[in-house]
Design goal:
Layout lengths: L13 E3 L5 H11 L7 H15 L5 E7 L5 E11 L10 E10 L8 H15 L4 E4 L6 H6 L16 H5 L3
Parallel strand pairs: 4-5
Antiparallel strand pairs: 1-2, 2-3, 3-4
Helix pairs in contact: 1-2
């Protein structure tokens, strides 16, 4: 996907992501979040799906920091999903922070904090009150400083059909 011509944002400034950022967000996720990098077919599938989800009306919200040399220095991606409303979830909206990644050359400069903070602010303005994420040991202090707390009740399971499991990578 090619970027739309226009003025480049100030390097280091956090900005809302657009569908044009889907390729870079997907690349950062593959390189720095997943336990194994994705192959070209999966990168293309993720990039295409994410571009649609970042478009107006989609369920993805992201904030990015542009690298001075091109591409992205950092990103934070959240996926919004409905849940049944209640006193703690009056709008019935939750968000899973799906990707937070920073290129190694740009780490320890506050880019992840800025991107996650902007993302949380936007999600809160949209009515989300429940925020979930999986934190690496290295990133846990950042998330704790933003108000996240660990939960021993959180459990996870992945169930793939045999033919799907064989085609992964």
């Amino acid at each position: 996907m090619t970027r739309t011509p226009g003025p480049l944002p100030t390097p280091g400034a956090v900005r809302p992501a657009t569908p044009d950022d889907a390729g870079e967000i997907t690349r950062l996720r593959s390189a720095y979040v997943l336990s194994e990098p994705l192959g070209e077919e999966w990168l293309a599938r993720c990039r295409e799906q994410l571009a649609g989800r970042l478009a107006p009306g989609g369920d993805a919200r992201a904030y990015v920091v542009d690298a001075p040399t091109g591409g992205l220095a950092a990103c934070a991606l959240g996926l919004v999903h409905p849940l049944l409303p209640g006193p703690r979830y009056p709008e019935g909206l939750a968000a899973r922070i799906h990707v937070v990644a920073t290129e190694p050359a740009y780490r320890r400069r506050g880019h992840a904090r800025a991107a996650v903070s902007a993302l949380l602010d936007r999600l809160e303005r949209e009515g989300a009150t429940l925020f979930e994420l999986h934190a690496s040991e290295e990133a846990a202090p950042l998330y704790a400083s933003l108000g996240f707390a660990s939960s021993p009740a959180m459990m996870r399971m992945t169930r793939l059909a045999p033919e799907t499991a064989e085609g992964t990578a």
